[in-house]
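Deliverable D5.2: sample structural annotation.
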Amino acid sequence: VAEAASLLKIVRATRSEWVGINLDTGNFHTDDVYGDIARCVPHAVNVQLKVEIQPRGAKQKSAADLGRLVKILRDGGYQGFIALEFEAATDPWVAVPKWLNKLKEAIG
């Protein structure tokens, strides 16, 4: 499910307060990735924050805007855990500490 509308349709169809979303920010491939993420935040029970996104039509992934993602999570009332997930092609031993620092800065 790569679009908020489809994912929310499934969640709402359960009619259960016990069903939520494992919000993986790298799984949205729409024209408005950040908008779709924002629509899903109120239903998020966990967040897997990917360091890259790939909007519809993009030939390759691009760096996620962590500051924007953290703001979306805050504005949506999310108060749970955030797992930083790294799947980029670069060396994780070098890149992950940098991304972790960016996330810490964004969180404040």
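Annotation notes: DSSP finds four helices and five strands in the chain. Strands lie at 21-24, 44-50, 52-53, 62-63, 82-85.
The annotation will be released with the project's public dataset once the embargo ends.
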